[in-house]
Amino acid sequence: MSETRSPLHDEHVALGATMTPFAGWLMPLRYSSDIAEHTAVRTAAGLFDLSHMGEIAVHGPDAAAFLDHALVGAISQVAPMRAKYTMICAADGGIIDDLVVYRLADDDYMIVANASNAATVYGELVERTAGFSVDLRDDSSATALVAVQGPRAAEILRATAGLVEDAQISGGTAFDALRYYACLRMRFEGQPVLVGRTGYTGEDGYEIWLEADRAVALWRALLAAGQPFGLVPAGLAARDSLRLEAGMPLYGNELDRTTTPYDAGLGRVVVLDKPGSPDFVGRAALVARAEAEPHRVLVGIVGESRRAARHGYPVLSGADVVGTVTSGAPSPTLGVPVAMAYVTPDVAAEGTPLAVDVRGRAEPVRVVPLPFYRRPR
């Protein structure tokens, strides 16, 4: 079966991108070099095509109550034009996907799901609508998403031709006042777009949703505006190394159906006692997990040699296997190999010396706090 192509596919090819299959899509892996694109995001800005992500609209008088029931967070408490990181879990507490939910109005939400899980998330949500007056719509194929990430992102958006504020649709919120995990309605070439101050790189930045057939014009306008600021197009390779440095989990690596939010160190996203004490899918299992001693802990590890740990490599304490690497790579920012791994609690303390079996050789590592990198404030 052939992969789905982004509405920006021809733009990527014209820029010389190396294309790769990813979650059923054909997406740019890199345009120049992984390190150059990573460094541009840390020092200036990178432009990402995220059109493979899923967008699900939730609308209706019971939208807030429905999302409180369907997801682990207290979504009803999110203010209009704000966003919330959350998860959808199975009845046994296992993570089906991690999500960002944007509240666009009192009864109007947009859920952004990972590309690999978008169809599954939509199906799960549909099954959970019983008893709620709510409408769901999968807008993924009709929607494009691009992101500008990096310390100069705000300057680039201000300089982009055709991208303007409009008090009539923004509700009076100004772009310069946009807070982290908030969103704003703007116009590009006269048509509405949604701008969120969110991202997956550990840097400040913005994500922009618009109709798929208008994506090329916005992509070109952003590239033109960003050139004086050091903006470069960036692919999946840089996106992965950036999120790893920032300690952000990736579904299929740190998160999956066998993992609860508590296992992943993300118990803070679970609200066990929501307003009105409504039950939600997975609550009983998550209550039990919250009260139990952990069997494994997600930790950061830094390599003390030059060989990087990779996904699936065993973590060792002496001759004993005490965990498994979930994500790992050389860190362009820090200049050392870094990784995340699930390990047994007895070796999870900061500073604990361990090793990783890198193709038959035990490479020394030590446990460190996550994230590995925090952007300057």
Strand content: 25-35%
Helicity range: 10-25%
Number of strands: 21
Average pLDDT taken over every residue: 97
Q: Looking across the biggest beta sheet, what order are the strands in?
A: 11-12-13-14-10-4-15
- Radius of gyration computed on alpha carbons: 21 Å
In short:
The protein is α+β, with helices and mostly antiparallel strands. About 20% of the residues lie in helices and about 35% in strands.
Outline the structure in words.
The protein has 377 residues and is an alpha+beta fold. 20% of the residues lie in helices and 34% in strands. It is built from nine helices and 21 strands. The strands form four sheets. The chain has a seven-stranded mixed beta sheet, sandwiched between helices. Helix 2 packs across helix 8. The longest helix is centred in the middle third of the chain and has 12 residues, at 215-226. It is globular and about 65 Å long. The mean pLDDT is 97.
